[in-house]
Write a structure and sequence with these properties.
179 residues; alpha/beta; eight-stranded mixed sheet; two-stranded antiparallel sheet; 24% helix; 31% strand
Length: 179
């Protein structure tokens, strides 16, 4: 099925492809990101987004952010275990199909897809249009990977690459959909 919204990824990784340490720690990313100077294009990206979709593993660490980074946007958490209701800023969905139908009914235009498992689910479903990966020059050796099995190749077209201070490199790709 085709949906009336676009889905984009904007995420940081270590050079060896991890989005967090195994315990969820992001200090390796935030400390080096600050050294690169500025928001690395995040504000321009998020200004064009009306909906954020993330998994529980991304949502729960974000509870400590003050202020809430998604103010003014619809936030959906895709989770089979998170309780619905305690946080009025988010709506919890148990499965991808219900989430997608709800987004279409809401008139969603642009979705920021965040979190490794959710990104992989959207890629497997052929829903991601654009991926921006900011690579920090550090090797973690182990951690939570951005990518995993997809059930086939995901062809990408290079859009741009930028190099920031501290050796941070950001590449944007469009996902080439079959058909």
């Amino acid at each position: 099925m085709t949906y009336p919204f676009s889905c984009s990824v904007f995420i940081g990784t270590s050079l060896d492809g991890f989005i967090a340490r195994e315990d969820g720690d992001l200090h390796w990313l935030t400390s080096r990101g600050e050294a690169a100077g500025g928001d690395l294009g995040y504000q321009e990206f998020i200004d064009g987004i009306d909906t954020v979709v993330m998994g529980r593993g991304t949502y729960e660490p974000g509870l400590s952010y003050d202020p809430w980074p998604h103010e003014g946007r619809y936030v959906a958490v895709l989770s089979t275990t998170l309780e619905q209701g305690p946080d009025p800023r988010v709506t919890v969905y148990r499965d991808l199909d219900r989430l997608l139908h709800a987004l279409a009914e809401r008139g969603t235009k642009s979705v920021y897809v965040d979190g490794g498992q959710v990104i992989r689910a959207f890629l497997r479903a052929g829903l991601i249009d654009r991926i921006t990966i900011t690579t920090v020059p550090v090797l973690l050796g182990t951690g939570l990977p951005l990518f995993g099995p997809f059930g086939g190749d995901v062809p990408l077209g290079h859009v741009s690459t930028k190099v920031f201070d501290a050796g941070v490199v950001q590449s944007t790709y469009r996902v080439i959909q079959a058909g």
